[in-house]
Design goal:
Length: about 290
């Protein structure tokens, strides 16, 4: 369960008018267009079409349905060419279900940033689903030096995930400490390019996951100034991307962080907890 479920259910409540209108158009004008929410899954193949060749009955699989939702259920129907892959050995269903949650968004943001050895990145909101994935991918896969910004309770976790430096946002404002980074990544949609500009090195960039205001900035900063706003490249939102994540898990470069596992009978409690925006990593629903 993630923030997208909340957006679909509540219509971007609390967001600016433009965001609320866009959310309603995407998710339903008066009520959620998709009555069964949930966009990530893991389980056993119960049935396969006559022409299916990549997966067979009994295979353990994971994946995502994206904005088609439908995963908060006992059964999910997906094309074999869809965003689905075999579960890496050694993972339970609960561990595999959130592999795509956060990581697909993180990799889509990080890839266009030109990360690599010698580059530095600050990840704001590092303890969320996207942020915790980004910390691991930036450090272990791209080889960048990572500074993770999070709450006090998550500082040690960030170090375990590969962060080289950690900042407690309740005690320090990274925009005021004089440090600069090749990349600043707002992984929770609570910061902005204008606030972060002085913390970005010349030739560096600002990455974002939310915020209508950042979209036009990603256009004009290509031509104005020496610091860019880079929009996510959604080229990994396909089966290739899911297979890629499976390979990262096998290589030990990524493993989703799980905060809590709720039985499906406690879906309301799970939703309330996710809505607090205080979760660390992912919240999983288990179907008995």
């Amino acid at each position: 369960m993630n923030r997208t479920d909340g957006h679909a259910r509540d219509g971007e409540r609390g967001y600016p008018l433009a965001a609320r209108m866009a959310g309603r158009l995407a998710f339903g004008l008066r009520a959620p267009r998709r009555r069964i929410l949930g966009s990530e899954f893991a389980g056993e193949v119960a049935a396969a079409g006559a022409g299916a060749t990549r997966f067979a009955i009994g295979d353990r699989v994971f994946g995502t349905t994206g904005l088609a939702f439908g995963c908060h259920a006992e059964f999910v129907c997906i094309r074999e060419t869809g965003r689905v892959a075999h579960i890496p050995e050694g993972l339970t269903y609960e561990e595999a279900a959130p592999i795509c949650d956060g990581a697909l968004s993180a990799i889509s943001c990080l890839q266009p940033a030109g990360l690599g050895g010698g580059k530095t990145i600050l990840i704001y909101g590092a303890s969320g689903a996207i942020g915790s994935a980004a910390v691991q991918l930036a450090a272990r896969h791209f080889g960048a030096e990572v500074t993770a910004v999070c709450a006090t309770k998550s500082l040690e976790l960030m170090k375990k995930l590969g962060a080289h430096n950690v900042l407690d946002y309740t005690k320090e404002d990274f925009t005021q400490n004089g440090e600069q980074y090749s990349v600043v990544f707002d992984a929770v949609g609570k910061h902005s390019f204008s606030k972060s500009r002085d913390s970005i090195k010349p030739g560096g960039c600002f990455l974002f996951v939310d915020g209508f205001g950042n979209v036009p900035r990603s256009v004009w900063t290509r031509w104005v100034g020496d610091k860019r706003v880079v929009a996510p490249a959604f080229t990994m939102y396909n089966q290739k991307g899911v297979y890629f994540l499976a390979q990262l898990v096998k290589a030990g470069e990524y493993k989703p962080v799980i905060d809590r596992v709720y039985p499906m009978t406690e879906v309301v409690e799970a939703a309330r907890y996710v809505d607090t925006q205080q979760k660390t990593g992912n919240v999983v629903l288990a179907v008995a």
